[in-house]
Amino acid sequence: xxxxxxxxxxxxxxxxxxxxxxxxxxxxxxxxxxxxxxxxxxxxxxxxxxxxxxxxxxxxxxxxxxxxxxxxxxxxxxxxxxxxxxxxxxxxxxxxxxxxxxxxxxxxxxxxxxxxxxxxxxxxxxxxxxxxxxxxxxxxxxxxxxxxxxxxxxxxxxxxxxxxxxxxxxxxxxxxxxxxxxxxxxxxxxxxxxxxxxxxxxxxxxxxxxxxxxxxxxxxxxxxxxxxxxxxxxxxxxxxxxxxxxxxxxxxxxxxxxxxxxxxxxxxxxxxxxxxxxxxxxxxxxxxxxxxxxxxxxxxxxxxxxxxxxxxxxxxxxxxxxxxxxxxxxxxxxxxxxxxxxxxx
Length: 345
Description:
Layout: H1 2-10, H2 15-29, H3 35-43, E1 52-54, E2 57-59, E3 63-65, H4 76-80, E4 86-92, E5 105-108, E6 113-116, H5 125-132, E7 140-145, H6 156-167, E8 173-177, H7 192-207, E9 215-219, H8 225-238, E10 242-245, H9 259-265, E11 270-273, H10 277-291, E12 297-300, H11 306-315, E13 319-322, H12 324-329, H13 332-344
Parallel strand pairs: 3-4, 3-13, 4-7, 7-8, 8-9, 9-10, 10-12, 12-13
Antiparallel strand pairs: 1-2, 5-6, 6-11
Helix pairs in contact: 6-7, 7-8, 8-10, 10-11, 11-13
């Protein structure tokens, strides 16, 4: 029903407007008594064999929702009823910011992809915390943190530490996002020296807490082999808990979408969806093999089917996340992946 009826209707509306409309509709329907139970029965696959124990957390299943969908922690309770083993909110910045100019979200239907240049639009970390205080469902929450656009890279550590402190009591793990292509110069923080400084500062802050929480690094798919080697070295040296691979790509190679359409959209923005899958698998496999499986890798990028997810697990991923695939395929994708995993057991 989702792909045949609902999706074609939703795709008639501007992508950003339909995102907010969908949130409003989901919140409305979930106020109806029994609806949350219906979704759980339809999409939640409960089986001990699906559990994954990672950095002190027991994930009920290895399929999560990637950051970017529920930026401001407005829908995590409802989303948890759709079968996800965990939900990642954000990217959140210390201060609210509107993001980049519109239009900034584009569908490439022929490629089952999305181009976004949102620019960390969010209501700020404090607003998200107020919503997280109303966690009704037992769902694992990841907090994806970034810096404000107006903050220079030399001061970026302050922004990340601020977000970390404010969110600390309300999330189960943290993700350091230095890989979005939509905030000027942000990806420069992936270079060895600034990245080491940033992660080291956050680790020291984490260790000052009574009960430290896992910290993961989210990286871009466009890094060179040398860059990935540096990432592996830093993660091992600082004993960071894991890596999320990968964020969106700035590449536009191999797309089916007409070049005139791409020219109209422009070169700015990150591409997600099916065209990213092959590269994401390559990055996951490289990190796992080159590091000697020294740390967990959470895979994200172009997962539109259960078989796509299996590609990630075969490459060595411990968990997977979906985002664009969730938009194109609906919540049935979550249960399909979990059922496939049980079948492969």
